[in-house]
Specification:
Elements: E1 2-7, H1 11-22, E2 27-31, H2 56-69, E3 73-76, E4 79-84, E5 89-93, E6 96-105, E7 126-127, H3 130-133, E8 141-146, H4 151-159, E9 164-168, E10 180-182, E11 187-192, E12 196-201, E13 204-207, E14 210-214, H5 220-223, E15 229-230, E16 233-234, E17 247-249, H6 260-281
Parallel strand pairs: 1-2, 1-6, 2-3, 6-17, 7-14, 8-9, 8-14, 9-10
Antiparallel strand pairs: 4-5, 5-6, 11-12, 12-13, 15-16
Helix pairs in contact: 1-2, 1-6
The structure holds flavin-adenine dinucleotide.
The site of flavin-adenine dinucleotide has 34 residues, from helix 1, strand 2 and helix 6.
């Protein structure tokens, strides 16, 4: 059982991980590839103490080297879901289930819009994880909306189970499987009755049994039910506590200003709060 699981590996997540480690807690950071951090896109950062005229990529490289030096464990991949087990939490990380006493969410900004019908049919034909739910669609027809870096891999995996895979992906792809059909169109609506039956797109409508929406990031409201969200941001107090005991949040996902210094500072506060939460559990 971990003391602290950090979700997200941008400046907030690395800071939270380093500070929890310094507080002697059993901590692991679970995050997508570092290139998905917003900071990676910054051509030049001038307003972070100690750095001047530096690229975001270079800053992240320095942060990662610091983490490596103190032997902070960082695992690359995506967290699909958090389960509340009452006495602790369990996270689904790449379909591996990991128990933890506390969680620090540092998932940054999620800009993806939710498709019409997505929330209505979630768990009834709409899935975010091919590895988790692919088996339910053996011999059936599915559609993959590929917006994450591993979408091709996931579509290929589904093509081995499903009878037919439709694939919508606005990036270049390289899939040649006979049962994958690429559709060059925009998603309009996921339709059904009790369960998903079809998808309307800008060039027509197709009948299907399931829709896999593969995004780089999952909206935080989908990571765990019951988390209080305000104007699309996780609501926290000044100790970075959310409304759920043992769950903390830091960085862009908690709101403005969207800046590295704020993300790193909040990561520190969240780590200290998580550490003291764990200490109290053990009393
Ligand atoms: C072009 C640009 C220029 C900028 N310039 C500046 C600047 O000059 N100065 C400044 O201070 N700030 C700047 N920023 C803002 C800064 O980059 C952000 O404030 C900072 O990166 C926030 O850190 P974070 O850790 O909260 O989020 P992020 O850095 O976005 O990291 C979040 C990480 O969590 C991962 N993640 C999300 N969901 C999951 C999941 N379910 N499982 C696993 N991993 C997940 C994401 O893929 C990502 O890697 C700039 C941003 C951009 C885009």
């Amino acid at each position: 059982m971990l003391d602290v699981a950090v979700i997200g590996c941008g400046p907030a997540g690395i800071s939270a991980g380093i500070n929890a480690k310094i507080r002697n807690k059993k901590v692991k950071v679970f995050g997508n590839n570092i290139s998905t951090s917003y900071l990676f896109k910054a051509e030049r950062v001038d307003n972070y103490l100690g750095f001047h005229k530096v690229t975001g990529e270079k800053m992240l490289d320095k942060f990662m080297k610091h983490a490596k030096k103190i032997k902070l464990e960082i695992e690359e991949g995506k967290v699909f879901e958090i389960y509340n087990m009452n006495s602790h939490y369990t996270i689904n990380f790449n379909n591996e289930f990991i128990d933890t006493k506390t969680i620090i969410i540092t998932t940054g900004l999620t800009k993806s819009k939710v498709f019409k019908g997505e929330e209505q049919y979630l768990g009834r034909g709409v899935s975010y994880c091919a590895t988790c739910d692919g088996n339910l669609y053996r011999g059936k027809t599915v559609l993959v909306i590929g917006e994450s870096t591993d979408s091709d891999e996931e579509a290929h995996f589904l093509s081995e189970l499903a009878k037919k895979v439709y694939y919508i992906n606005n990036k270049e792809h390289n899939l040649k499987e006979d049962n994958i059909e690429y559709i060059d169109a925009k998603v309009e609506e996921i339709c059904g009755e009790d369960i998903v039956k079809s998808l309307k797109h800008s060039s027509g409508e197709i009948k299907l049994d399931g829709v896999f929406i593969l995004r780089q990031t999952t909206p935080v409201s989908k990571l765990i039910g019951g988390l209080e969200i305000e104007s699309n941001m996780i609501k926290v107090n000044k100790n970075m506590e959310t409304n759920m005991p043992g769950i903390f949040a830091a960085g862009d996902c908690t709101g403005k200003p969207f800046q590295v210094a704020k993300a790193v500072g909040e990561g520190l506060v969240a780590a200290l709060s998580a550490a003291s939460y764990v200490d109290k559990m053990e009393l």
